[in-house]
From TrEMBL:
The lineage of its organism: Archaea, Methanobacteriati, Methanobacteriota, Stenosarchaea group, Halobacteria. This is AAA family ATPase. Residues 38-184 form the Orc1-like AAA ATPase domain. It holds the Pfam family AAA_16.
Amino acid sequence: MDIEAMIRRRQRPDEESRLVAGYEPLSPATHVEEPTDRGRLLEQLLDHLDPVFDSRLPPHGYLYGPKGAGKSAVVTALFARLDHQTVNPGTAIYTTTRVEPTRELRFVYVDTRRHTSEFGFYHTVVDAITDEPVPRHGISTDTLRTRLHRRLDASGAGLLLAVDHVGESGSAAAETLVERFSALPSSVSWLAVGRTEPDETVLTDYTAEAIRVGPYRHHVLVDVLLRRAADALNHAALDDDAAATIAAWADGDAHDALAALFVAADRAARAGHATITDADVDAGFDEVPADCVALGRVFALPANKQTVLRALLDLDPADRETVTVATAAIADETDLAAGTIKRYLYELAAVGVVDRMQTADDGDQGRPPSRLEPSFPPTVFRRLYDLEG
């Protein structure tokens, strides 16, 4: 526990609760600067990246594992640290025992949940390695691709890309990324990050190594929960037994464990509890769907789709019985056109962010009505969305 965290616990944003000091540390979509107990994975990644310490690019790689295993947390933290040491004088990644660096290396992270299009992909990369702002309008994908080639050719720099969430529903497909990678300069190496097994993705046809990360072990996940709680909750709000119960239920999935803890803490705060009770924990379990969609994917959606989701969560069950009924209800609460709302709802269902749960057939001909249900914990999205707004 550091002094800053202890101070934050006492800086309550309102008087709603003396239990929760801040919700952000509990968010499954929040990545900390120092991931908890992922030393082995860091060592594996550093073994793969070892050539960069001699100013050389490593071969292409593929990192894979299940949801909630800490892949994104570790990769974002590692690439941010390596790039910081590259571009800041006095913090170079090269040591005195290594050869004198012959080229600059840059490290860029691309989230394909947020940047699914080819334009978004290149814009992210070019914007990360240039000092001047890159416009989002009035510029073509071909121009961005050309600018990337010229920038690397002129500087002689090498570029290592971490491309995350590949192959997920709503993200860039592996086959699409292979085409994009083939158009990159030879001075670029990539590390793809996904959930698919190596023998089920075309990406490994182009990689030298596949690195597997497994689910969190029970005691490690308990530590993750206690550390996040220490930054978010007042002292002793979450005891060791409650953390162990949540970790056992989540079965190695840190995302779902944090989501359940978030819901439990929110329920306890609204009830005025001094600590998180067993009933609060059970409520957290009840709200996390069996095949929970990652909150990071939900918050990567365009702003208008998030607006539709937020309005959907406040509808009475009767107003979610069909897409048509939900569309009309949401249109009354937002400035979006009904046609746009309906299209968004179908698109959100197509990528699994909402489920269309088939309701009882009333005997009429045609498809039975389908009730709209979120595939993520509504309390977590609602609270974080409202805080950002």
